[in-house]
Amino acid sequence: MLTCFTFFNIEKHQVHERMRPWISKKIMEFLGEEEATLVDFIVSNTQQHVQASQMLELLQSILDEEAEMFVLKMWRMLIFEIKRVEAGVPVKSKA
Asked: What three-state secondary structure class fits 75?
């Protein structure tokens, strides 16, 4: 279970914003074009701690049969980023 400390660290380390490029890339792959509004919507929902099942429901009509795989992969990435923050592993900045 995630603690308040973890939630603070997630926000402090901008885990959701670090997910943005990955989300954008995957949406581009699935839809064949950039969809900034959809990416913003997904990032916003992750920031609101929407459950995976609810995220799947929200994206089902947009991504069709790709929705389940997208949500699964996104959750894996999100968990990886959260665990990285919890372990104190520094993130390389892109300069």
From this structure: helix
Q: Sign (positive/negative) of CA torsion 34, 24, 48, 54?
A: positive
Query: Could you tell me the sign of the dihedral formed by the alpha carbons of 37, 43, 48, 51, in that order?
Result: positive
Q: Which domain holds residue 41?
A: 4-87
Predicted pLDDT at 8: 45
Contact 67, 60 (CB under 8 A): yes
Round to whole Å and give the CA distance between 59 and 68: 9
pTM of the predicted model as reported, rounded to 2 decimal places: 0.77
Q: Is 41 exposed, middle or buried (0-12, 13-18, 19+ CB in 10 A)?
A: middle
- Whether the pLDDT of residue 95 is over 50: the answer is no
Residue 40 belongs to domain with CATH number: 1.20.1390.10
- Encoded amino acid at 28, one letter: M
Residue 61 resides in a domain: yes
